[in-house]
Amino acid sequence: MKKRVILFCFIVTLYSCEEKRENKIASTGDSHETISASRDIGGLLKEKPTDIATPEGMVWIPGGTFVQGAVSFDDMAMQHEKPAHLVAVDGFFMDASEVTNTEFKKFIEETGYVTVAEREVVWDEIKKQLPPGTPKPHDSILQPGSLVFKKTTESVPNLYDYSQWWEWKIGANWKHPQGPKSSIENKDEYPVVHIAYEDAVAYSEWAGKRLPTEAEWEYAARGGKKDAIFTWGSDITKLSQMANSWEGEFPRSNTKKDSFENKAPVKSYPSNNYGLYDMAGNVWEMTQDWYNTDYYKEQSEQKLTKNPLGAKTPYNPNNPQLQEKVIKGGSFLCNASYCASFRISARMANSTDSAQEHLGFRTIATPEMLLKKD
Known about the structure:
By secondary structure, this protein is α+β, with helices and mostly antiparallel strands. The protein has nine helices and 14 strands. Strands 12-11-9-13 form a four-stranded mixed sheet.
């Protein structure tokens, strides 16, 4: 049984801002040779191999070199987005949008998979990742569920106390995103949420794909824009036109200037230069990298890293008991006064066994993966 940290632990650890502020191969030729021929003189795969078809719902991301991390003039950048460092990534295919309820439902129907948020809660497993001596909560709390956002009725002076706007809701899961009385009816094209890391991995493997690395995700989000803060450039006044975020006083009132208060259907906003939608806002997206506060410093000491896989082990002094992965892109809750995570370099840590109303994912596939799948 996969471990889960329930309400009292979730609220303390969730999203520490730390600082406020195959488808088919198209020809019968030797595609492995085509992939090799598509690499440049430095061995980097930039252009899509000509005999590999782009999978439905995905776009080709041409390989290249970029500076990962905060750009120098980004006043909203947090310390864990620094120092910036040079990275090269091979080209790959990426979902044009976040995985939707419809796509995830097909996976469930074909496999019978049960998500973490739907499973029985076992205290003996949970307590292994909590501080020694943590008392067992009442059995009424130890029930399957997930975290749901709730607006406050008054202004919140302390934006470090996440319990003010998060509620552990028994019965909340991907089919019931705001609790047992809610549903995803008429929300086929909304991003699936309340998905834990192992759920996203299971879906990815079923689809013959995988989660992106943090470097792949950030490179793709940049869309070829060298020094941009946002996926569309560096003009924050365009935020409401380009992304689903929280505009107004967080977490009390949302002006809905961007047309949505909660999640939006995928592709509700313009794509970036690579044809990717919602790489800023809407829901956070998982990567396969461990979150380690020392990782960026270690990477900056190298001249260039090609296709980095992230830290070898997780490390977060603020949450030493948790195994955390890097998530990217921000969500409909991101606000300039809070963590402003609708920026390309923004990153947060998320426990592998936790699921929330504003966390989803998208997948990638490499040409080699498609060859193997075929």
